[in-house]
Amino acid sequence: MFNPKMETLPREEIEKIQLGRLRKTIAFLKNSKSMLKEKIKDIHPEDIKSLDDLKYLPFTTKDDLRDGYPFGHIAVDPSDCVRMHMSSGTTGIPVLNLMTKNDVAQWGEIMARCLACAGLTSKDRLQIMPSFGLFNGGFGFHYGAETLGCFIVPAGAGRTLMQLKLIKDLGVTAIGAIASYPARLIEVAQENGFDFRKTNLRVAILGAETWSDEYRKRIEEMMGVKTFDIIGMTETGGVGLGIDCEARKGIHVWEDHYIIEIVHPETGEVLPLGEEGEIVVTTLTREGLPLIRYRTRDISKIISYEPCECGRTHVRIDRIKGRTDDMLKVKGVNFYPSQIEAILLKYKGLAPYYQLVIENVKGKDEMTIIVEKTDGGLTDQEMERLNLELYDFLGFRSKIQIVPEGTIQRVPGKAVRVIDKRKK
Amino acid sequence: MFNPKMETLPREEIEKIQLGRLRKTIAFLKNSKSMLKEKIKDIHPEDIKSLDDLKYLPFTTKDDLRDGYPFGHIAVDPSDCVRMHMSSGTTGIPVLNLMTKNDVAQWGEIMARCLACAGLTSKDRLQIMPSFGLFNGGFGFHYGAETLGCFIVPAGAGRTLMQLKLIKDLGVTAIGAIASYPARLIEVAQENGFDFRKTNLRVAILGAETWSDEYRKRIEEMMGVKTFDIIGMTETGGVGLGIDCEARKGIHVWEDHYIIEIVHPETGEVLPLGEEGEIVVTTLTREGLPLIRYRTRDISKIISYEPCECGRTHVRIDRIKGRTDDMLKVKGVNFYPSQIEAILLKYKGLAPYYQLVIENVKGKDEMTIIVEKTDGGLTDQEMERLNLELYDFLGFRSKIQIVPEGTIQRVPGKAVRVIDKRKK
Ligand SMILES: [Zn+2]
Ligand SMILES: [Zn+2]
């Protein structure tokens, strides 16, 4: 562990810290330059008697942060900030997160905990594959590795063959990447006779996208690595909010820095342990962009507040199933692309390259699943079984098109899984 | 100044520090893991009685560093290193520079001095436009800004319209970029009615390419900024080896960290002050890749060892004219692309987008200068004058093709100035 004392605090101490820091965050925000303080103008830190009172505070949404563009939602003067990141935002106005020196140190701390949770020490060599820049991924790994003291290979995005060459030549032991990228690494490795087992690579820390357990199993087998699922976003201060551990019994969220709630995506009602809903994040130590009850739109559930086999005591949540924005509604059925992925990748003959094409044909929804084959594709019997499994899950018939390897365009950054032609 | 004490040391103290650190570097290298120690196996630190004895030490070449790939030329164990950068190397094996914690701190220090020399303080907002990653440019500015404490907008390369938007929206006061990139910024600004004078931008720190005084004047006028010429390369520890100051009387090289010599590119003989030749760099404080007399292939001359108007006492060298690798030999005449640029950009009707196409036609060299026009191009009279000026400089007739704006492909990263079809 990077910070054994904090990572193994007894529950009551975690909650004591959380309560104190929540009150401080409220006081800090109320005295700040942020326009978000309007939302809590009638709330006073001493109103919060227990963590249970959190639920009476108003939510903060992505639109609230967009409305602040560029700096209206930032709590400190920009000239007191040293760094910034920006959420790409497929549409419209981006969200900025400005960071003070303390924020950068906080980010380094939580990312160092994540790296250590994935088994890294200062002796590891970490190749960073998310892009560096406005996107928070590259720099998140950078600050974590800097804090942990390990050797950084700052590869950034793309140039897959070069990435493989560096892994081998430099004795790289761990990679950080966008979750879909290992599929590309494996593909280029196969094309070039590159054998991951002849390298020192043993860990892949993946995030920024929803990825299924089946995809996980697939890349662990093919790359001979152990994968770790890391979460976090620009708004909360970047990647590093939490990560799963070797026990693989949920994603630990660093509770001395964040409070996690799960709420009903429509009613906003707080849901009990084990029930699936939207993750809501309250920051406890951020200065540039302190957040009260931020609606992340990510869907998960709380697994346990009990100590984990790994020794860490911080809450565990389920791997993220999808974002409310990514949820598809086809013929009245709601589902996430990652759920389709999980079904497809049970078949060895299918590759982790797929697209869901949704159209409106004569007033009716139609979905075509385009998926690349690998190793000869499916037998007739498998094809039949796949059709049945999809029907069981979706409750409607979808068309399956199995296409040759390399058909679906490889893109830098996040994979394009859905082409919804219904939207104009 | 970032470090007034060191930046204004009297000459004799600079030289005292240099002599001591040179001996230490030799001792360090001799006791290191680097295969480069072979070169100095018969030399002992105490053999160096004065800085004048430097000339008896052997040179280090880029090929020496390539031969070490990946780690043979590195003086410390890779597991004692925390960072690395890599020279792209248009052909063949790349050169790695591995950095210890002290090296990263040294880089931060020299880059902070450079930023301060360009007039920046902790209150500035610096948009970093070179790419982050294996190339050293982005991270060099990052560490410098981190050390100086200014606000970093980590834009990275490309997305020019977004770059302009951020400059305006975020109140950016300074940019760091590859020298040819402002031409693209100006072009996209004009296409989009963007007015640099309605922004807070006042400084552009440019490097990584050779750029003429005429280009400099052009972008200063069009962007309303003051430009600063920054030098440095992966091998020496990255961008930040030196920068010119407001006095604009040469590029200061940080002499407590580096010794500069100018040598004859062919004979290797050390040249006296004022004579043009190849820059040779000896590092005095680097640990991962200490260099004795590294042949940079960059052409410059020493301007003065006297204190500068700005108060700094560190040596001043001329702006880099070109790299020996970039030197063209056409019809027996040697010249640099930047010298052609300087002639073209005297004409307001020509844009800073040009290419020199060199072919062998029936056994004879032919050069065509393709250059984009702007604001209506050249009058017949100007065209005649340009032809004459080029002939005066080159001593042979070249063909000039003036093409519409946007004809020459815009590339991310360094501009492609020469297409030499003679080489197979
Ligand atoms: Zn655990
Ligand atoms: Zn000066």
UniProtKB/TrEMBL annotation, chains A, B:
Superkingdom classification of source: Bacteria
Sections of the chain in a coiled coil: none
Top-tier EC class: ligase
Pathway(s) annotated for this protein in UniProt: Aromatic compound metabolism; phenylacetate degradation
Domain AMP-dependent ligase C-terminal: from-to ranges: 332-422
Alphabetized GO MF terms: nucleotide binding; phenylacetate-CoA ligase activity
This protein's record includes keyword Nucleotide-binding: yes
Record-annotated AMP-dependent synthetase/ligase domain positions: 51-282
Matches recorded under Pfam families: AMP-binding, AMP-binding_C_2
Catalytic activity: 2-phenylacetate + ATP + CoA = phenylacetyl-CoA + AMP + diphosphate
EC nos: 6.2.1.30
Biological process according to GO: phenylacetate catabolic process
Record keywords: Ligase, Nucleotide-binding, Phosphopantetheine, Phosphoprotein
Functional note: Catalyzes the activation of phenylacetic acid (PA) to phenylacetyl-CoA (PA-CoA).
Name this protein carries in UniProt: Phenylacetate-coenzyme A ligase
Protein source organism: Thermodesulfobacterium commune
Lineage, uppermost ranks: Bacteria, Pseudomonadati, Thermodesulfobacteriota, Thermodesulfobacteria, Thermodesulfobacteriales
